[in-house]
Amino acid sequence: MSLEAFNQNLLSFLAQSPTPFHATAEMANALKATGFNQLFENETWQLKPQQGYFVTRNDSSIIAFTTGSENYTQQGFRMVGAHTDSPCLKVMPNAERYQQGYFQLGLEVYGGVLLAPWFDRDLSLAGRVSYTSKSGKLKSKLINFEKPIGIIPSLAIHLDREANNNRSINPQKDIPVILGQLPKDKTNVRQLLLEQLHQQGAEDAAKVLDYDMVCYDTQLPGYIGLNQEFIASARLDNLLSCYTGMAALLTAYQQDQQQPMLLVCNDHEEVGSLSACGANGPFLKSTLERIVSTGEPLTVCLENSLMISADNAHGIHPNYADKHESNHGPKLNEGPVIKVNANQRYATTSETSALFRWVCDEVNVPVQTFVSRADMACGSTIGPITAGEVGVRTLDVGAPTFAMHSIRELAGSQDAYALCKALSYFMQLQQLPHQ
């Protein structure tokens, strides 16, 4: 696949994935189209050699794998991990607000949101809705309003003369989204969702019981820069890695039917990963046990495996270069970044880092390194959590980006493609170099 084709597919994936539910559905569709078979956790699995399979949990996490020659213990798995969730504003359960004649929704902050960029954006709603059908059955469906239906207006500077010097944001008071001027006795959230269900094909929906709905920016992903050097989009952290990992898996699977490979994309990383479908839950380990077996076979398999946790890295910002360690400032479009932290906030070791450098050399991909300033704390990823839960050697890498956790982030237009080349080569390794 060419660089341009890869990026166009990435932009399309980002646009179609306003929530972890939609991202998981998009990946499931792409896997099915490439011949992967869907498995269900409440059924017995009958796996065959040289096949591709995938399984989802909570509609928001997904594991895809290939069986190869089924020699799991000696070959091990080549694994890539990412996460489907992004910091956002989530609609509260009883969200209705009626103030000064405006219909608003109360919002809850999900994850480490950079709040200021959410003001004055054209917002829409998307998520999963659970409802009863006219026949009394409990069902759920993904919905997306798509068009702009909400906005969080800024307070005019005339009413806050210190806005450019010292404006703080109170998420309880300042961020309820305005949906319009509607009569209080005519509209509520569940009625809006019921009408949207009907519009999107769930004509049997009778009553909305509950929902997971979030606001998102309707501005489409696209290129930025005089020479299209950059990609701008919401949710680059970490849907860029989800798409890149999936593209690498599909490319590797089409070229190699012998090596077992696995992609895991977990939800809830931005809030600590502790959930049934998060990296700090049992999803990956229970899936591996069903594929390989428990006890010694799985232990040997994991010793012969390696996990690459892919999550975006902080590119050195030209306006804030002093926020970076002077010898570890990754630049956009200069290759994927190895993320290192002495306190195990990243899972990288010198051994796993060396292997990734070797992989990048083999496919002529440049590689960079990120270490936080010694006087600043860094974030974390699913890497250390997965390593601790499963016991597999792991390293953390990612494409360098700006504005992480903003409503619109920025990445280099060459880096995801370069990372995909490295991951695809890694997934096809019949034997790790150290073995």
TrEMBL record:
<keyword id="KW-0031">Aminopeptidase</keyword>
<keyword id="KW-0645">Protease</keyword>
<dbReference type="GO" id="GO:0004177">
    <property type="term" value="F:aminopeptidase activity"/>
</dbReference>
<dbReference type="InterPro" id="IPR023358">
    <property type="entry name" value="Peptidase_M18_dom2"/>
</dbReference>
<dbReference type="GO" id="GO:0008237">
    <property type="term" value="F:metallopeptidase activity"/>
</dbReference>
<comment type="similarity">
    <text>Belongs to the peptidase M18 family.</text>
</comment>
<keyword id="KW-0479">Metal-binding</keyword>
<dbReference type="Pfam" id="PF02127">
    <property type="entry name" value="Peptidase_M18"/>
</dbReference>
<dbReference type="GO" id="GO:0008270">
    <property type="term" value="F:zinc ion binding"/>
</dbReference>
<dbReference type="GO" id="GO:0006508">
    <property type="term" value="P:proteolysis"/>
</dbReference>
<protein>
    <recommendedName>
        <fullName>M18 family aminopeptidase</fullName>
        <ecNumber>3.4.11.-</ecNumber>
    </recommendedName>
</protein>
<keyword id="KW-0482">Metalloprotease</keyword>
<keyword id="KW-0378">Hydrolase</keyword>
<keyword id="KW-0862">Zinc</keyword>
<dbReference type="GO" id="GO:0005737">
    <property type="term" value="C:cytoplasm"/>
</dbReference>
<dbReference type="InterPro" id="IPR001948">
    <property type="entry name" value="Peptidase_M18"/>
</dbReference>
